[in-house]
Predict the structure.
Amino acid sequence: MRSAGRHGPDLPYDLLAGVVPCRKGWLVLRGKLIGATLHVEPPEVVAHFVEVLDHVPSYIVTAVATPIGLADRWSAGGRRCDREARLLLGWPRLGAIASPPGRRNLRGKKAVGDVTSRQLMARIAEIDGEMQPYRQRAVYSTHPELSFFQLNSERPLRRAKQSPAGRKERRALVARRMAGIERVLADEVAGVTRSQLLDAAATLWTARRIAAKSAARVPIAPQWDKTGLRMEYVR
């Protein structure tokens, strides 16, 4: 799954990114992978996803918590990857997997179906406008709940992330696997919630799994949309 191409200078480390949509654009949590050690850097917010794509030096893996690859229109069950992700998570976390809007729905001004936030609709439209099939050699769609499921030894979490107990549960999981992440989670980032910081940490952890070629795809055999994009989650 690792990207063969990159731009920028030769470096003694590989650069990874976990990216989560937020109020002011995109929350980016990057990590320098040196051997088996991941050094997590302070989080930042960029206004546009193209800033992630054009970052110099380039990220060998970008894991982004946004759907990539869309059907023509929204449907109640969503794409096959959405349905299989819900089966994997099971109760009570299956409701975290929304059915994304279809590409035609993105032209409208209203939120559609499971995605009730116009802001999130705009983020999905933005990434859909930037993605091309070749970019999927380095940019992967993931979902924080799938990342936390993997962190939790493939068991669904017990509490919703919006609750204090849910945030505590998730914080303990990433702190156990990612050295120095507590410092990052203590940062105050304008326009970013504690839950989004936790999601970014889990997403970066998935980026590391992708770089190590140990990640799994949902579904195992993905579907492609009409533009040639894989419709899948990587965990």
About this structure: The chain has a mean pLDDT of 92. The first strand starts at residue 14 and ends at 22. The first helix runs from residue 50 to 53.
